[in-house]
Design a protein that fits this description.
Layout: E1 3-5, E2 8-10, E3 18-22, H1 26-32, E4 68-72, E5 77-80, H2 81-84, E6 89-93, E7 96-104, H3 109-115, E8 121-122, E9 129-130, E10 135-138, E11 143-145, E12 161-163, H4 172-178, H5 181-186, E13 192-193, E14 202-205, E15 241-244, E16 255-257, E17 266-267, E18 278-281, E19 292-293, E20 300-301, E21 305-308, E22 313-316, E23 325-328, E24 336-339, E25 362-365, E26 370-373, H6 374-378, E27 383-386, E28 389-396, E29 407-408, E30 415-416, E31 422-425, E32 430-433, E33 466-467, E34 476-480, E35 499-502, E36 510-512, H7 513-519
Parallel strand pairs: 12-23
Antiparallel strand pairs: 1-2, 2-3, 3-4, 4-5, 6-7, 7-10, 8-9, 10-11, 13-14, 14-15, 15-16, 17-18, 18-21, 19-20, 21-22, 23-24, 24-25, 25-26, 27-28, 28-31, 29-30, 31-32, 33-34, 34-35, 35-36
């Protein structure tokens, strides 16, 4: 509690009354004040060329331009006037409604432990790093905040992308293509499409059409139904979309989002490779099973790409149309601009996954030291559904209110850091790693401890398809390695959380993707 009695203050941070000391002469104060009734008052005075020491709350110096400060002479304890008059409690702060924030000098051990930053930690609003200074803290959530204000005007940024996307059925490509007038005018311009990516005609599926008199099931994690686009490798959760004409007789099951079927054929002056034009490539030439590493997010992908075959520079289509600016719910009041962290003078860390930005492109808040990987900003939807919970799960950027215990993932059952973004059900109070959330059929038992990031490593890989190798009698299916799998039959090392080829008939024969590619002719 803060109580001011004349020029004395009773402050909750100190056991003695604090006296108000002036750092300007009475004459200077008279010139600044309209009311000179107190000219005869005797004030403690400090000469102008001196300062009042250091504030015990913010640890900053007290200078003459601060005009005055509070001081306990017996303890040599000082406070800036503005620091001393901050309220001890903040009720229903707009950034943390429902709980009381308390002005505190303490740091919860859990926060320091989770962040692993030698006792330094960051404000959850401005993201600035601080140590040995006061903060507003919610004891129920292990959360601390500073002050923030909006740094942009909505009307000056009419096309600003607001993240995260609402659900798994919405992604950057849909946002980009629906902003293009040509795409809007060409929608539903025919139910049959010949696309360069596929040898068979594609037909448009909408609410009134079917394939072979049987409706095609949309992607539904709750029912363990998987339908991934062959272009962007993202779920197809709405109609219309395109599917191979021969899907009815099981000869082929090739599907594309409507917007992925109408992507531009080339990109001029792409930021990451401005010297050459990038062309749309349904499959990277010479790459085994079409798998390549994206030059932006560095994730493996076997979907469509934009590429320069001369320089062997390839970008997954999900990273091809990254906007220059976004906002994000995790930092809603500030614009984030696209940056290349490799040009930064010192190492930066992602707010979402807590890992170094390194060479990866990201978004940066110029008002705060706030960085986030492109994939963490764009690839994690706001709401997901999962078979582990009958309710939708929301993306969380901080610990859950009133939950002070340890956090465990419902999918892999491993403990996790609640300061790393995760998904949470407020009804069932269940949580899961963001990387454990995607539905990957036959791979639900993949353990998170092999890859402790926010993004599922194979988010851009569409597993499935098969091949035949010479030293095995059955066809091998392209799949993710699991903890339960035996070691690779070629190199004898672990298959866990690696791309692999498995025999689904023998159940005891599996090999790494790299090992198979070395024995199969391209």
């Amino acid at each position: 509690m803060v109580v001011v009695v004349k020029d004395q203050l009773l402050h909750f941070s100190h056991h003695h009354p604090l006296n108000l000391l002036h750092l300007q002469s009475p004459k200077q104060r008279e010139e600044e004040e309209d009311d000179d009734d107190n000219d005869n008052d005797e004030d403690d005075f400090v000469e102008e060329d001196h300062h009042g020491g250091q504030c015990n709350l913010c640890n900053e110096q007290i200078w003459s331009f601060h005009s005055c400060y509070y001081h306990c002479k017996s303890c040599d304890y000082s406070l800036h006037k503005f620091c001393a008059e901050l309220p001890e409690f903040m009720q229903d702060h707009p950034l943390h409604v429902g709980h009381t924030l308390t002005l505190s000098m303490s740091y919860p051990y859990q926060m320091i432990h989770y962040r692993n930053t030698d006792s330094k930690w960051k404000c959850y609003v401005c993201n600035l790093e601080w140590k040995d200074t006061y903060n507003y803290h919610c004891s129920l959530c292990n959360l601390s905040r500073g002050k923030t204000s909006k740094n942009f005007k909505e009307d000056e940024h009419p096309n600003l992308l607001h993240c995260p996307f609402q659900n798994e059925g919405v992604n950057l490509l849909k946002h980009y293509m629906f902003d293009q007038k040509k795409f809007i005018s060409s929608q539903h311009d025919g139910e049959m499409l010949n696309h360069l990516s596929h040898q068979h005609p594609l037909i448009l599926i909408d609410k009134k059409t079917s394939v072979g008199e049987k409706l095609v099931s949309l992607h539904d994690p709750m029912k363990r139904v998987q339908l991934l686009c062959d272009g962007c490798v993202r779920p197809i959760m709405t109609v219309p979309f395109y599917i191979c004409f021969h899907c009815a007789d099981k000869q082929c099951c090739f599907v594309l989002h409507e917007w992925c079927a109408k992507l531009p054929m080339k990109i001029e002056e792409y930021d990451g490779h401005p010297q050459h034009t990038l062309f749309l490539l349904p499959e990277i030439p010479g790459e085994f099973f079409g798998v390549f590493d994206c030059a932006i997010c560095f994730f493996p992908s076997n979907g469509f790409a934009y590429g320069c075959t001369t320089c062997k520079y390839y970008v997954d289509i999900n990273c091809a149309f990254i906007p220059k600016e976004i906002t994000h719910d995790s930092h809603i009041d500030h614009i984030r601009s696209k940056v290349n962290p490799s040009a930064e003078p010192r190492r930066r860390y992602c707010k979402a996954c807590k890992y170094s930005m390194k060479r990866k492109f990201g978004f940066h808040c110029r008002s705060c030291d706030f960085y986030i990987h492109v994939q963490c900003a764009l690839f994690l939807p706001k709401i997901i559904t999962h078979k582990c919970d009958k309710h939708p799960l929301s993306l969380r950027y901080e610990p859950v209110e009133n939950q002070l215990g340890e956090y465990f993932c419902e999918v892999c059952e491993n403990k996790f850091d609640p300061f790393q973004w995760f998904y949470h059900c407020t009804t069932c109070l269940q949580s899961m790693h963001a990387a454990c959330a995607p539905l990957i059929l036959q791979n639900e038992l993949a353990t998170y401890d092999s890859y402790d990031r926010c993004i599922y490593k194979f988010l851009n890989i569409k597993f499935g398809g098969s091949l035949k190798i010479n030293n095995h009698s059955h066809r091998l299916v392209f799949a993710q390695g699991l903890q339960s799998d035996d070691d690779c039959n070629i190199c004898l090392s672990s298959l866990q959380y690696k791309m692999a080829f498995k025999c689904l008939e023998c159940h005891d024969f599996a090999c790494h993707y790299e090992c198979v590619s070395s024995v199969v002719d391209l």
